Amino acid sequence: MQQALLRFHRFLQTHHFYAMAVISMLTCGLLIGRVWRVQQLAFVFMIWNLFLAWVPYMASLWAASILQREPSARWRLLIPAAIWLLFFPNAPYLITDLIHLRERPPVPVWYDGGLLAAFVLSGCFLAVVSLHNMQRLVRQVIGTWQSWLFAFISICLGGLGVYLGRVQRWNSWDIFFAPKHILNDIWMLVQFPFDHIHRLALSGMSVVVLVICYVMYLSIYHYGIPQRRMRIQRVRRMPQDG
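The chain above was modelled as a monomer; its predicted structure follows.
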């Protein structure tokens, strides 16, 4: 039992679960403090948006746990991978919630700006970590260059999903209830791109922000790999030195 809990702890630690949980709790704490102080429910909807951003991250953990327990049962990855792709745009979608920033007395605008920024950063962090989790799985199953193609396509689809959510007001689950309408909105965007230049710009901006966040995350992540390897080597040499 103790070994199982230790493995579970290491799994969560490897996939940054604790960091994500702390960041989300601090972010929600800022909102709860605002509600308690001024007795207003402004921005409470952000908790729901943050929850939706957690869905693709949890789906990526589900997929990673399947491949770790049963490497040969790759077909079982289809369901968590589909859930991840379907809900992935909800994480960068938080970027567009910055449109709600305005003067809301008696709360100073700087506080609301920091509050929204905290939610945006939380959403972006959830997005890039879940994307990295899925890219690593694709690399294990298919190959390296295919995993980078997967990451690029996923980011582009994420940008498209932000447009569908913010402008067209579609939810992730609407793909099951109104697939024809969603596909029609996408086709209109593709067929008449110059008539929807501002909407394309929204998708493009979301893609660029995601790319920036992902590159920053990867640079930090890969910088830490040599450091972790050095620590492991030192620990392994310690008994010999004694």
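The two ends are 31 Å apart (CA to CA).
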